[in-house]
Each structure stands twice: as structure tokens, then as C-alpha cells.
Amino acid sequence: MSIVTRFPQATFEAASALVAPAPLVDRFGRAITYVRVSVTDRCDMRCVYCMSEDMNFLPKRDLLSLEELDRLCTALIGRGVRKIRITGGEPLVRRNIMQLFQGLDRHIESGALAELTLTTNGSQLARHAKALGDAGVRRINVSLDTLDPVKYKAITRWGDHAQTLAGIEAAQAAGLAVKINMVALKGMNAEETVPMLQWAHGRGLDLTLIEVMPLGAIEAERTDQFLPLNLVEARLRERFTLRETGYRTGGPARYVHVAETGGRLGFITPLTHNFCESCNRVRVTCTGTLYMCLGQEDAADLRAPLRASASDELLHDALDAAIARKPKGHDFIIDRDHAKPAVARHMSVTGG
Ligand code: SAM
Ligand code: SF4
Question: What pTM, to 2 d.p., does this model score?
């Protein structure tokens, strides 16, 4: 073969090595820019709507290592992902988890990643808040369903209210913006949305209310827990002036501005208002299973391609095949005729 014929081939190979893999866009034209990564299915609490009291957890060897998690996140960032939320289970109970944040900070510094954040129950925040800030985390979500320590114990089973509040304080002291996630639970905290709103906004915290979703088998009946947020919102509107805002955080919440408190209030309403048409998200479990939709069973194994080769080619092929199958939406229903969970896996497995 002459040099003349070999040259274009070599040029072509060099050029294709330089071409970045294409952004992840599904067949409905939705670009995947937001990934929630669960780093553990374990937790130091047992919230009644999330877990059963005696859960079986995955063997540790099934989990992606911190290095594999970094490699996966880096590959996703290379495909156009701009926001990564670390979640679980309780992400801060995973051993050495700060190493993952510290490693991913390089993508924040380079500008490739716009936001690195986490959702936590707050129990371990007091000791990690400063390091999170140092690793480029700017905003976090902390779950807090009640201001009453006795009710907190009833809801979380193992949680300590004072410890969570101390975690929130430490996060604010470290300069992190904190958003409180409150799952609306019929008969448990329905009367608390007003005091929670006043408490949160009084401390400069955003508040997001979440409808309970039928994920995983738990002891309680979902119909006994489900509180439609349109009812909660109507009640809040009797007392407060709620103005629609165009504010988005890249997630599913719709935000209003509360005139009386000057704060922001979000609603996540997968059941009463479906937001799937604008879904930009996928979720990865701690074992490297990619769920293209929180509310559907279809999934893709990313751990096998990660472990099969040191190069990311197989991983990118698996991502392409998976995103091409991302469903149009979920089918959550909670009523007396739908007593079983819509999806068998718990929220702590898929990552909230
Ligand atoms: N352990 C962390 C925490 O509680 O914030 C992160 C994981 S947790 C699964 C993430 C979020 O999902 C929390 O805000 C929690 O309240 C919410 N969640 C858990 N199970 C849920 C369910 N069945 N329906 C709606 N939200 C749920
Ligand atoms: Fe743990 Fe979070 Fe689930 Fe509560 S909601 S049991 S804190 S993972």
C-alpha cells in the first residue's frame, strides 16, 4: 500500500479519535443532561414511605467502586451531562464518599459540569459540609418531613431530629444553599406545611413538597400515605400569595414565589401532574444499572461494559442503546385498585 493511500486512512483515524461522542438524545428529542447517581442502597434511617424496617441490602462486592463511579460520571459528562446528583440510600454513609466528590470537582473546575450536588437525610452533614463545599458543591437537598422530633422518629424510625437540624446548620455555615425536601404524607405531616414553610423561609432555605410515589414494598398502604399536592397547594393559597416563577433547577419541580415570606416553594407532583415530556434525567444505581425512567422497569447494565474493558467504547455503546429505549413516561397510579407498588424496587435502590 502506498503512502498516498495510507495517509487519508491515518488522518481519518486521528480525526475520529478527536471527535467527542455525540450527546445523549432520546427518540423523543429529549437531551439527557441530568444524572442521579446512587452510591449506596444502605441508609442509617428507615423512612416509612421509603423502606421496610428489615431491608435486605446488596453485597458490597456488587457495588461500583469509587473509581468506577468516577469513570462512569466522567463518561456521562463527556456525553453532555451537565448536572450530577449523588444520592442513595444515604450517600454520606458510603465509606470514603468524599473522594468521589473531590475527584469530580475537576469537571466543575473545567466547566464541563455545571453542577455537582447531593440529596441527603442530613445525619452525617455536620462532619462533611465543609468538605462538600471545598469539592465544588454549591447547593444540596436535605430531607426533612416534620419539625416535630417525635413525629420525625415515627417517620424515619431511626433518625435523630437534632442531628439532622445540626447538619442543616453546618451546611449553611459552610456556605451551601440548602433546599428542604418534604414528602407530603396524609395523616402524618399534612398540617405541617405552613409551619415548615415559615421555618424554612425564615432561615433562608428553599422548600420543595413531594408527592409520595408507589416505589417498593413497604409495611404501610400507599393510599393511606398519599396526599395529592394540588390539595396542599390550594390550602396554602388561602393563606399565602403564591406567584408562578420560571425558576428551574434542571429537575422536575415547579416553583412559586411566596410573597409573605419572600422564599421559594417547589412542588414535585409525579401523580397529579405528569412532567415526563420535559424529562432530561436518567438514574444509575450503585451497582451500575441505568434506569431510563424512575417509574418503569426497563434498565441497562453499565457495570459489565465498565468492567469488560479499560476503554469506554463498550460503555458508550451501552449508553446509546439504553437512551434509545428511554420510555415516554411513567404510569404511576395510587388508588384502591392499584394496591401493589407500580415499581417493585425501592426509591433507595434507584436513587431519589
Ligand atoms: N437518603 C437521602 C434522603 O433521604 O434525602 C437520599 C435518598 S432518598 C431515596 C431521596 C428522596 O426521595 C428523599 O427526599 C425522600 O424523602 C424521597 N423518597 C423516598 N421514597 C419516596 C417515595 N416512595 N415517594 C416519594 N419520595 C420518596
Ligand atoms: Fe434513607 Fe433517604 Fe430512604 Fe429515608 S428517604 S430511608 S433517609 S434513603
Answer: 0.89
Q: From the CA of 156, which ligand is nearest?
A: 2
Angle between helices 97-110 and 66-78 (to 10 degrees): 20
DSSP state of 328: S
Number of the ligand closest to the Cα of 119: 1
Q: CB-based contacts of 337: which residues, under 8 Å, 6+ apart?
A: none
DSSP assignments along 102-144, one per residue: HHHHHHHHHTS-SEEEEEE-STTHHHHHHHHHHTT--EEEEE-
Q: Which atom of ligand 1 is nearest to the CA of 38?
A: 7
Best mutation site among 143, 182, 225 for ligand 1, i.e. most ligand atoms within 8 A of its Cβ?
143
Task: Tell me the pLDDT of the chain averaged across its residues.
Answer: 88
| Residues near 279 by beta carbon (within 8 Å), at least 6 away in sequence | 30, 252, 293, 326, 329
**Range name among 1-5, 7-11, 90-94, 310-314 with the lowest pLDDT average:** 1-5
Strand 281-284 and strand 177-184: pairing?
A: unpaired
Helix (H) or strand (E) run with residue 267 in it: strand 264-268
* pLDDT tens digits, 299-332: 999 999 999 999 999 999 999 999 999 988 766 5
pLDDT at 13: 46
Can you list the domains of the chain with their CATH numbers? 22-350 (3.20.20.70)
Q: Give the number of the atom of ligand 2 that is nearest the alpha carbon of residue 121.
A: 7
Q: Which residues line the pocket of ligand 2, CB cutoff 6 A?
A: 43, 45-47, 50-51, 88-90, 121, 143, 156, 348
Q: Which ligand has the shortest distance to the CA of 351?
A: 1
The per-type count for the chain, helices as H runs and strands as E runs, is 12, 12
Selection from 118, 124, 219 nearest residue 166 by Cα: 124
Distance CA 22, CA 81 (A): 11
**What would the pLDDT profile of 215-239 be if each residue is shown by its tens digit?**
777 777 777 888 899 999 999 999 9
Overall average pLDDT of the 174-194 stretch: 95
Ligand 2 pocket mutation pick from 348, 349, 350 by most atoms within 8 angstroms of CB: 348
